[in-house]
Design brief:
The structure holds two protein chains of two kinds. By secondary structure, chain A is of the alpha+beta class. Helices cover about 25% and strands about 35% of the residues of chain A. Helices cover about 75% and strands about 0% of the residues of chain B. In chain B, about 40% of the residues are buried. Classes of the chains: A alpha+beta, B mainly alpha.
Chain lengths: ~375, ~230
């Protein structure tokens, strides 16, 4: 489809080893990562401040590592030992920023044309037209960026970068501000594009939905280090599961076995198991979860956010929530303005409450409580 | 009414030359001030801003010294042209350029630095060199600041007195500007003539500044440079 002037090193994988220190007034931050990214999506996942954007900036050349090496195929972009530091403009690294950074004084078409200044006019017009069509922004070509919607702006930013035929694509939370449907459509278009071009795409996000949706390979970053990597499912099951799960946002993750499937109701019953301390009885808890494609007896993971669980001090009734589980309060711990309660109900669950709720319910360790969990607060993941 | 049209035309010619030179020379200087990471940059910034606070006579005095036949600059110019820079139109232009420098460079630099750095980063990842980024992104987004800078330099040159008096003297058709002419007429107790010239200058400068502020009103996104700078 593209008549690229330069020969393209197809399927050239990105190899990066980056070490960089920052010292600000508040804290010292050390980035130390090493990874490969083959063609396709590699997700950089982690809380804000983990160093994700710095990794992208180093690959793009906007920031220089203190030490390390960055290469695409056999092309070295950075090497602190030689030293080599290829300027940003010569790297052919596509970078879509979180802020998009569309040129406000140019039209959509001129924005997309921007990176093709060196291409002969006829060829340039043809490439831009093809790209505008591929990303379905053809009808907006004369509009300035200020006059189009958020989703359209994302498409323009992607088209502007992809039309230059980059050898790596860096995406810094490009879809964070979009609704799920728009997001899914753009991801589909991006996938279709990469089916043809096959370049490494580094995709930064802290949304677990995006990790699951895009999930080919995930690198989990925390405090400047890669703490887990693999497929989304591997990452969730890895020995570092607890840290990862907390990053993903599930304070509670349980091994579960499918007991029965109720397709008519769109639900399933799952038996939760958890490692309890030796001296306590190892009870089993059954909960109702949304229906997924799984056989009776198959093993899954169930994740429940601590903030999604209600806590009652009398047996509640007349609720729509399907899971009401009796248990006993093990501990209460105040963290900032929330109270984290641990409840033993056969398995141990973490529940988040407000300070006011703790005081109003007069909660103490040892108190008998009931946990209320909506079916759709139970998130199923493959083991 | 005796309007000294010769002085008026001379003043406009001076202001046009000065603002044109400041436009061309001010862009790279403002660019350097905005984007340089040199640790002693602040010294250059202070130097550029100096004419805002300095009495014009101080600048004029040192220029006169520099133009004199005892200074290397004066000697060099004399060996080149056969006459001194003092009391010539060229000397007046040089003095006015230095005196109006901050009025052009500061609005330029302010508008350059208000351009979102992410746009510059985006431009470079799209393969554009720093120079190309300057002409394709920074400059087009700085147009209101450029207009402001040029107009202020123009208006400021129109109204200057001290430097002209020190460096240019009072030679009709060569160095006698409107402000000097007004001074002359007051000295000669010709208040009607002084009034005519003063009113002309007042209205002219008001129109120039009104155009500048009018342009600013139409582009509210541009971070405005403090236009109320004291002279």
């Amino acid at each position: 489809m593209h008549t690229a002037a330069e020969p393209k090193s197809a399927n050239a994988a990105l190899r990066a080893a980056i070490r960089k220190r920052f010292a600000t007034a508040e804290r010292e931050f050390k980035l130390d990562v090493e990874f490969d990214a083959a063609a396709g999506f590699t997700i950089l996942f982690g809380p804000s401040g983990a160093g994700k954007t710095t990794v992208l900036d180093c690959v793009a050349g906007l920031a220089a590592p203190d030490a390390g090496r960055i290469s695409v195929g056999d092309r070295v972009l950075f090497d602190s030992t030689i030293p080599i530091h290829v300027p940003v403009a010569k790297r052919r690294v596509g970078y879509v920023f979180q802020e998009l950074a569309l040129f406000p004084h140019l039209t959509v078409e001129q924005n997309v044309e921007y990176g093709l200044a060196h291409v002969p006019r006829a060829d340039r017009k043809q490439r831009v037209a093809a790209m505008l069509q591929e990303f379905r922004i053809d009808h907006l070509r004369q509009q300035p960026p200020a006059k189009i919607s958020g989703g359209e702006r994302q498409r323009v930013a992607l088209a502007r970068t992809l039309v230059t035929d980059p050898c790596i694509l860096l995406l810094d939370e490009p879809l964070a501000a979009l609704d799920a449907a728009t997001k899914a459509r753009i991801i589909d278009d991006l996938r279709a594009w990469n089916q043809v071009h096959q370049i490494p795409i580094l995709y930064v996000t802290h949304s677990r939905e995006e990790v699951m949706a895009l999930g080919e390979r995930v690198l989990v970053l925390d405090c400047g280090r890669i703490i887990a990597q693999g497929t989304p499912h591997e990452v969730l099951r890895a020995p570092l599961q607890e840290t990862v799960a907390q990053l993903v946002g599930f304070e509670n993750i349980f091994d579960a076995t499918v007991e029965s499937v109720h397709e008519d109701r769109g639900t399933m019953m799952c038996k939760l198991e958890a490692d309890m301390p030796e001296n306590q009885p190892r009870n089993q808890v059954e909960i109702e979860t949304p229906l997924v494609r799984a056989e009776v007896g198959s093993h899954l993971l169930v994740g429940i956010q601590a903030g999604d669980i209600l806590l009652a001090i009398t047996p509640p009734f007349g609720l729509s929530a399907r899971n009401v589980i009796p248990g006993r309060l093990v501990s209460l711990q105040q963290r900032d303005v929330i109270v984290s309660a641990r409840v033993n109900c056969g398995v141990e669950m973490e529940v988040h409450l407000t300070l006011a709720a703790r005081d109003a319910l007069d909660l103490m360790p040892g108190k008998e409580v009931w946990l209320v969990i909506k079916t759709h607060s139970c998130h199923l993941m493959q083991r | 009414m005796s309007i000294d049209w010769q002085a008026f035309c001379l003043t406009i010619a001076l202001a046009l030359v000065v603002s044109a030179v400041l436009f061309v020379a001010g862009l790279p200087l403002a660019y350097w001030i905005t984007f340089s990471r040199w640790r002693w940059k602040f010294l250059v910034e202070a130097l550029v801003a100096l004419p805002i606070v300095l009495p014009p006579t101080v600048l004029g005095f040192y220029l006169l010294v520099a133009f004199g036949s005892r200074s290397p600059v004066g000697l060099w110019w004399q060996s080149l042209t056969g006459h001194t820079l003092a009391f010539t139109f060229t000397g007046l232009v040089i003095g006015s350029i230095l005196y109006s420098l901050p009025f052009a460079v500061q609005p330029f630099a302010a508008s350059f630095s208000s351009v979102d750095r992410k746009l510059l980063a985006a431009s470079s990842t799209l393969g554009a060199s720093p120079l190309s980024t300057f002409f394709r992104v920074v400059l087009p987004l700085s147009v209101p600041g450029l207009v402001t800078g040029v107009a202020l330099a123009f208006a400021h040159t129109m109204g200057e007195f001290g430097v002209v008096l020190m460096v240019g003297g009072n030679i009709p058709g060569v160095t006698r500007t409107v402000s000097i002419s007004i001074y002359d007429q007051v000295e000669a107790s010709n208040y009607a003539g002084a009034n005519a010239m003063a009113l002309l200058l007042l209205v002219f400068c008001f129109v120039v500044l009104a155009v500048v502020y009018g342009l600013h009103r139409r582009s509210p996104k541009q971070k405005s440079w403090p236009l109320g700078l004291a002279d």
